[in-house]
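_Backbone structure tokens_
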Amino acid sequence: MIIGHRQPVFIIAEAGVNHNGDAKLAHELIDRSAATGANAVKFQTFAAERLVSPLAAKAEYQKATTGEGSQFSMLRKLELAPGVWPELKQHCEERGVIFMSSPFDEQSADVLVESGIEILKLGSGELTNRPLIEHCALTGLPTIMSTGMATRHEVEAALTWFRTGFRRGAIANTQQERVRFEDSGRIGLLHCVSSYPAPAHILNLRAIQTLRDVTLVPVGFSDHSVDIGPPQFAVAAGACMIEKHITLDKGMEGPDHRASLEPRAFAAMVEAIRELERMLGDGRKMPHESEANVRDVARKSVVALRPIPRGKEIEAADIGIRRPGNGMAPAHIGQVLGRKALRDIGAGEAIQTSWVDLVPEKEHPYF
């Protein structure tokens, strides 16, 4: 699969931790995500003791969705065992979707590589984590980075770290051949607003084009709004990737369910994006074949305003510009003046070039 701005939008169903630490739910999320038409299903790979201090507090949205307590205790319940990842990867292959996950530390990245993952994803919180970025670059795998909470300069620094790490010793991996970026690079970005949920007025979708212009890499949008509209608007704004949380039930306990779409809504989003792609077209300004009849009716031609006998030199009073557009184009009316009619031309007829003894355009004083 090729990801890029001249390709179909790459749609990621972000299962994240919406499995609530239950491998069976993770497998069900794969099945339900695949049925929506998503291209990929993404999880989050971590061990709580390597991710967060026991003293770290929860974010306000996490308190609202899971109650008081520490991040550590919350995340501990959301872990999946290392042996689960190859099974999830195999399940994704069986369902025809790309398996993805976000590692939160180097060891978790290694677990994913050993599981046969084909493309890595780094969450917004890791954008300033230079060791992890460089470690992912060294795998040689295509990597997508989210840019929530970041400034332009932080994004540029992260790209530099990734590219430096890749050049320092990344070895191409045969697994990566199935998924690649169209520019042959190894990095893509997702514009993101790390608010859960993110209200529409702060999404700043114009930043998608800014990131494209500044970084010259494929850019998409990781959406944390509660609606299916923003991903469509992001595609219209130039996004070539869409990431959106999916859940089996928004009412389930857990930090991300409320800001996720249930499968039916996710499928509606996918179909809306595909319809939008059809509307956007290929960008070339050319008439569609369906316009041919309207073109003949709506455009104008050089028309005889009165009968013009064969052999008569055509005068200004003999001709005018009228519909339909199936004769000589109005742009060439100057070629007709003073030239002889080669046949009788009836009043109202659209004059054809073969009916007049024309002078080549470059020889006529009108031009």
About this structure: The CA atoms of residues 121 and 180 lie 13 Å apart. Residues 363-367 have pLDDT under 50 and may be disordered. Residues 152-169 form the longest helix (18 residues).
